[in-house]
Specification:
Blueprint: E1 4-9, H1 20-29, E2 32-38, H2 42-54, E3 58-62, H3 74-84, E4 89-98, H4 106-123, E5 127-132, H5 135-144, E6 152-154, H6 161-169, E7 173-176, H7 188-194, E8 200-202, H8 224-235, H9 239-253, H10 256-259
Parallel strand pairs: 1-2, 2-3, 3-4, 4-5, 5-6, 6-7, 7-8
Helix pairs in contact: 2-3, 8-9
The structure holds nickel (II) ion.
Length: 260
């Protein structure tokens, strides 16, 4: 079995509390050797670090999600900076813009995104970007804040091929989640077919977005296999090849070999 990396999980979510050990055991049995748990506010960022301290194969990303930017102040960013110094923190994320839910005003989302990109550059950490219905603004901010100096990943990619190319030009990776396997996947299958293999990552974003055949259920890292298998099917490759390349890509982006 070729090892797989789930590049974006939220095992800190309360939905994993009851059967956490079983979820981790199923991931290992499925070949998912490495999991990056991603924070979306200060408590979840702290929790992701705590998990990484317990499990050698877990890493953490810390950041403030656009939904949670309303209450961010200088103190929040100071605390985030302190958390980001932890040796198992491999990225700043998830950060970005969400113009679909609009839980926070765009101006606030933009300001907090900019400040977190600056923090990432200061610490030389890559970015995990959340982008929902905000493609143009995300690209502008990434350019203006010189995000290409640290690179990153467009998590749970939701754009078309033209947008994917603009992200690739910035030096970013494209990560696919379970929605690639849905019947109504829009432009995603085409993007997964066309972009260079060495820029692809796979993720679950669990507990959300379970791939077919688990759609609608709680997602978990073991299911990342189905995302890799879908990419393999689209590109007429063996799932093992997709697993090998996406794992190598994740190791490179997050500099995992420097730590483990
Ligand atoms: Ni997420």
């Amino acid at each position: 079995m070729v090892p797989l990396i789930d590049s974006h999980a939220h095992l800190t979510d309360a939905r994993f509390q009851e059967d956490f050990a079983e979820v981790v055991a199923r991931a290992k049995a499925a070949g998912v050797t490495t999991i990056i748990n991603v924070g979306y506010d200060l408590p979840s960022s702290r929790a992701a670090i705590a998990l990484a301290e317990e499990e050698s194969s877990f890493f953490a990303a810390v950041g403030i999600h656009p939904h949670d930017t309303k209450t961010v102040n200088a103190q929040t960013l100071q605390e985030l900076q302190e958390l980001a110094a932890h040796p198992k923190v491999v990225a700043i994320g998830e950060i970005g813009l969400d113009y679909y839910y609009h839980h926070a005003p765009p101006a606030q989302q933009l300001s907090v995104l900019r400040q977190q990109i600056r923090l990432a550059r200061q610490l030389s950490l890559p970015l995990i970007i959340h982008d929902r219905d905000a493609h143009d603004d995300v690209l502008s901010v990434l350019h203006e804040e010189r995000a290409s100096e640290v690179g990153g990943v467009m998590h749970c990619f939701s754009g078309d091929l033209a947008f994917a190319h603009r992200c690739l030009e910035l030096g970013f990776y494209i990560s696919f989640a379970g929605n690639l396997t849905f019947k109504k996947a829009g432009a995603l299958p085409e993007v997964a077919r066309q972009i260079p293999l060495e820029r692809l990552l796979v993720e679950t974003d669990c507990p959300y977005l379970a791939p077919v055949p688990y759609r609608g259920k709680r997602n978990e890292p073991a299911h990342v296999l189905h995302v890799a298998a879908k990419i393999a099917e689209l590109r007429q490759l063996e799932p093992a090849q997709v697993a090998a390349v996406t794992s190598s890509n994740a190791r490179q982006l997050f500099a995992l070999d420097r730590i483990s």
